[in-house]
Amino acid sequence: MKTSRESGNRVNKIAKDIFTIPNAITLAGGILAWRGSKELNNPCGLSKAALGRLLDTIDGPVSRFTGQTSDVGAALDAITDKIVTAKILYEMKEQKVAPELVIGTIALLNGSNSIATGIANLRSEEKGKTRPTKSGKLAMAGETFTLIAYAGAHVAEHANNPKLAKFLRGLGATAFIASLPPAAHSLYTYAKQALGKNTVPERIPPTGAERSLRLMGALNKFNKCG
């Protein structure tokens, strides 16, 4: 009887970790970006891809705000991100949307990070709990902006707007260069984890509730001073 109850609780916990708002956002973003990547030469496809990648950046904050953080959600986010990024890079290469150097570098960095993270997870006592570093998140944001800017330039070229295309390509190149330092730091951190070397754990960002409590505390102190 006890075993049956424990089994039921385990199933409920797994279901609770799977069917969450952040996971729904992750999947919706992945599907949109996947579909949009197939038609990057028109505004509709670009909009889908951009919205999909935007959703991928907010699932983490939403999970912390709602208190729905879980290992399942983190794994789903990481896997979806790698698959969708690979798809976008492939389509951009096929459609000649961005320079091959940019596409190849981003693909190499993402692939190296995936390998290092996988090794770190296998070596860790807590399987599958390696989280993205802050530098990794910054690099991903820069890479996403890079790809969207180049895709926008591609659309502008098809719309016979060379000035806008040139401007967007410049933005893309700038974002790409800016993303390299955090990407290199992120890869270095993951490599250290994969080699089993100690790394200083990054501070977990406060949840929405924690921020509210801190703000209330600060306001109370301000009122007392007044």
UniProtKB/TrEMBL annotation:
UniProt cross-references to InterPro entries, sorted A to Z: CDP-OH_P_trans, CDP-OH_PTrfase_TM_dom
Gene Ontology BP, a term: phospholipid biosynthetic process
GO MF terms held by the record: phosphotransferase activity, for other substituted phosphate groups
GO cellular component terms attached to this protein's record: membrane
Superkingdom classification of source: Bacteria
Name of this protein: CDP-alcohol phosphatidyltransferase family protein
Species the sequence originates in: Candidatus Nanosynbacter sp. TM7-074
